[in-house]
Specification:
45% of the residues lie in helices and 15% in strands. The chain is of the alpha/beta class. Bound molecules: 3-phosphoglyceric acid (3PG). 3-phosphoglyceric acid binds next to strand 9.
């Protein structure tokens, strides 16, 4: 089965907000704030009891947003989240079983890798758009550079420890098509219900990318 391009999904704004939400209402407010800041795709991670409810609510109440699911580690989670409206799939890890279950949905997908062996297994399944996670802990841009010199047909979306302080370095590599992260909606901002600041951080991240594009 042909896997739709993940890069196309985030082409206009190549930043993927990673949202760990503890309440459906907050998830709707955060997603709307991010959308107002200029990003229309968000990843809800399956790391809270309400994550699936958040996906369902965003999917039905904010149709202008493309909501996806992250932290997938098994087939049942994939089936449940797609059933509730997830439009793309992200996993932190790579096994061929998990990746095949993701491929079977026909949705854009981003399986997580860090090692040459995992990347080789992904390529064997026809997957060349991969999440590099956790990026900073596994050597960041230096590791991606080394991997890219071997796997020059693979494109990465790194996540883990990425934010305004190091985003520009990552976008300096041609093998990186997007970055992901939680910094635009960190726990403190959500607890304070500071939706305007979430919009501001989103808009600032996009401005940084525009400046980088103009300077190249
Ligand atoms: C992810 O699931 O991609 C990461 O948890 C995001 O990492 P961050 O919180 O360091 O941005």
């Amino acid at each position: 089965m042909l896997v739709p391009s993940f890069a196309s999904l985030v082409e206009k704004s190549p930043i993927l907000p990673v949202l760990h939400m503890e309440s459906v209402d907050d998830a709707l407010k955060v997603t709307k704030a991010i959308y107002d800041g200029g990003i229309s795709a968000v990843e809800i991670v399956l790391r809270s009891p309400v994550a699936l409810d958040c996906i369902e609510a965003i999917s039905s109440e904010l149709p202008q947003v493309t909501v996806g699911v992250g932290t997938l580690t098994n087939k049942q989670q994939i089936l449940d989240s797609v059933n509730l409206g997830a439009k793309f799939l992200v996993s932190p890890s790579f096994t061929t079983t998990l990746a095949k279950s993701m491929i079977d949905t026909g949705l854009p997908m981003l399986p997580g890798v860090v090692t040459p062996s995992e990347i080789t297994q992904a390529i064997e399944l026809g997957l060349t758009e991969l999440k590099f996670f956790p990026a900073e802990q596994y050597g960041g841009i230096n590791t991606i550079k080394a991997l890219s010199s071997v796997f020059n047909n693979v494109k990465f979306c790194p996540t883990g420890g990425i934010g305004p302080h190091n985003m520009a370095d990552y976008f300096g590599l041609s093998s990186i098509f997007a970055v992901g992260g939680s910094w635009m909606a960190d726990k403190k901002l959500v607890a304070q219900k500071d939706w305007p600041q979430i919009s501001n951080l989103t808009a600032q991240a996009l401005q940084l990318i525009n400046r980088l594009e103009q300077s190249t």
